[in-house]
């Protein structure tokens, strides 16, 4: 009555096992299932649990078979773990479940195992740290953004020009040539918010004017069904506004915060940019180092872990499903690399006792509270509510792992 298990595939992290459950074991499972079902159902003329077993089995055969199969699958799963000594990465799945002519049960069990990570080479790597110098152009770009945020829009007469904000009602002809009621849009001319033909039409108009003319849709228009088509468009221009940007001077700096002068604002911007660039350069160097270690220490990955990472990317960056399909290989490669990096960090952290402790997290929370100028308990509660404590713990662990790696490898400045 023993369950027979035969390994049929061992490729990478994937395993397949053929499982055979003898008829006697199946009959036993069915009898137990029938007894359980009998207590749960009501059959006219009999008290719960008192109906003849044959009657219960006949009327509830499908439910009994399903419960018996579920129980046998659980037993088979336990037998597989005991016999094959598998360190499973995910819950196994049963495929091709069927009863034989002799009432035995057979199925194929698909499972994935955790990788065995042998980090044989961890030292002697040399990677380049990108430049992190702040340029005048970077500072000016930030200033321009601040100016744009404080820009005002003033209504003007005449015809619109590039850079003007227009309010226009647009209507495109249907397939039968009729032009429906239009829809109002607010568009900045020259910003690529409308196709070229529509912009040209609006730029030729005056306030209160309505014009209608054929417009050709570009060949690279997102909606493939509209590419290259020429359709009548009716436009009514109702408002033109011209942008006015404030002067970049000490008065503007004072409006942006506690800055005594424009020079003080520039200094703060430069400092913030420098800190961000240093963080980005450090992150890039660390990623390079981890990728070198990944290449030097290959191991198999469970496919389901890669799929989970792809799903995490899709949710975090709001990637549509069609984009995932379009760039499938590229996204899969990114996901595989990230999973490998994470596994190497986890392996090193556990092996060398670098995992952040509760005391480490408490100290970090106290540091954050100090920077915010608030009570530690309040900061802890806020981080806990936002689900950030786990993230904080992970960042401490990663910092320790990278400190350990940097002692054994070389980071050169580009």
Textual characterization of the structure:
- With 414 residues, the protein is an alpha+beta fold.
- It has three domains: 4-112, Trigger factor ribosome-binding domain (Alpha-Beta Plaits, 2-Layer Sandwich), CATH 3.30.70; 152-244, Chitinase A, domain 3, CATH 3.10.50; 252-413, Trigger factor, domain 2, CATH 1.10.3120.
- Helices cover 48% and strands 19% of the residues.
- It contains 13 helices and eleven strands.
- The chain has helices spanning 23-40, 53-59, 61-84, 136-149, 196-203, 250-255, 262-296, 303-316, 321-326, 328-351, 358-372, 376-385, 389-406, and strands spanning 4-11, 14-21, 93-99, 105-112, 126-129, 152-155, 165-172, 183-188, 210-216, 230-244, 410-413.
- Strands 6, 7, 8, 9 and 10 form a five-stranded antiparallel sheet that branches. A four-stranded antiparallel sheet has the order 1-2-4-3.
- β3 and β4 form a beta hairpin.
- The longest helix is centred in the last third of the chain and has 35 residues, at 262-296.
- The mean pLDDT is 91.
Q: Could you outline the blueprint of secondary structure elements for this entry?
A:
Blueprint: E1 4-11, E2 14-21, H1 23-40, H2 53-59, H3 61-84, E3 93-99, E4 105-112, E5 126-129, H4 136-149, E6 152-155, E7 165-172, E8 183-188, H5 196-203, E9 210-216, E10 230-244, H6 250-255, H7 262-296, H8 303-316, H9 321-326, H10 328-351, H11 358-372, H12 376-385, H13 389-406, E11 410-413
Parallel strand pairs: 5-11
Antiparallel strand pairs: 1-2, 2-4, 3-4, 6-10, 7-8, 7-10, 9-10
GO biological process, one term: 'de novo' cotranslational protein folding
Domain PPIase FKBP-type: 163-246
Organism: Pseudogemmatithrix spongiicola
């Amino acid at each position: 009555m023993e369950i027979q298990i035969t390994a049929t595939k061992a490729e990478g992290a994937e395993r397949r096992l053929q499982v055979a459950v003898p008829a006697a074991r199946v009959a036993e499972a069915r009898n137990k299932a029938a007894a359980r079902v009998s207590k749960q159902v009501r059959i006219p003329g009999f008290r719960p649990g008192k109906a003849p077993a044959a009657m219960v089995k006949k009327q509830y055969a499908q439910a009994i078979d399903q419960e018996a199969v579920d129980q046998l699958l659980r037993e088979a799963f336990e037998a597989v773990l005991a016999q094959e000594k598998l360190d499973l990465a995910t819950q196994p799945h049963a495929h091709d479940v069927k009863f034989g002519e002799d009432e035995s049960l057979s199925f194929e069990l698909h499972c994935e195992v955790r990788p065995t990570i042998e980090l044989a080479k961890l030292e002697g790597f040399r990677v380049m740290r990108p430049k992190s110098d702040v340029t005048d152009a970077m500072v000016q770009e930030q200033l321009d953004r601040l100016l744009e945020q404080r820009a005002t829009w003033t209504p003007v007469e005449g015809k619109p020009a590039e850079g003007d904000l227009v309010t226009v009602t647009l209507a495109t002809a249907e397939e039968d040539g009729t032009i429906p009621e239009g829809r109002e849009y607010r568009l900045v001319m020259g910003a690529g918010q409308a196709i070229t033909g529509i912009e040209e039409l609006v730029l030729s108009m005056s306030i209160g004017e309505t014009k209608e003319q054929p417009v050709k849709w570009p060949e690279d228009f997102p909606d493939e069904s509209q590419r290259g088509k020429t359709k009548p468009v009716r436009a009514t221009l109702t408002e033109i506004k011209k942008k006015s940007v404030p002067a970049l001077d000490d008065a503007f700096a004072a409006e942006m915060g506690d800055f005594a002068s424009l020079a003080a604002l520039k200094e703060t911007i430069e400092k913030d940019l420098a800190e961000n660039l240093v963080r980005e350069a450090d992150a890039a160097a660390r990623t390079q180092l981890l990728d070198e270690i990944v290449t030097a220490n290959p191991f198999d990955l469970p496919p389901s872990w890669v799929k989970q990472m792809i799903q995490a990317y899709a949710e975090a960056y709001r990637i549509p499903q069609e984009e995932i399909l379009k760039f499938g290989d590229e996204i899969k490669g990114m996901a595989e690399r990230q999973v490998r990096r994470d596994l190497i960090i986890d392996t090193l952290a556990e092996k060398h006792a670098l995992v952040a402790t509760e005391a480490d997290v408490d100290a970090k929370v106290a540091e954050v509270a100090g920077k915010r100028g608030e009570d530690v308990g309040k900061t802890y509660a806020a981080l806990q509510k936002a689900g950030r404590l786990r993230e904080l713990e992970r960042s401490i662990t990663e910092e320790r792992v990278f400190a350990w790696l940097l002692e054994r490898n070389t980071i050169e400045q580009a």
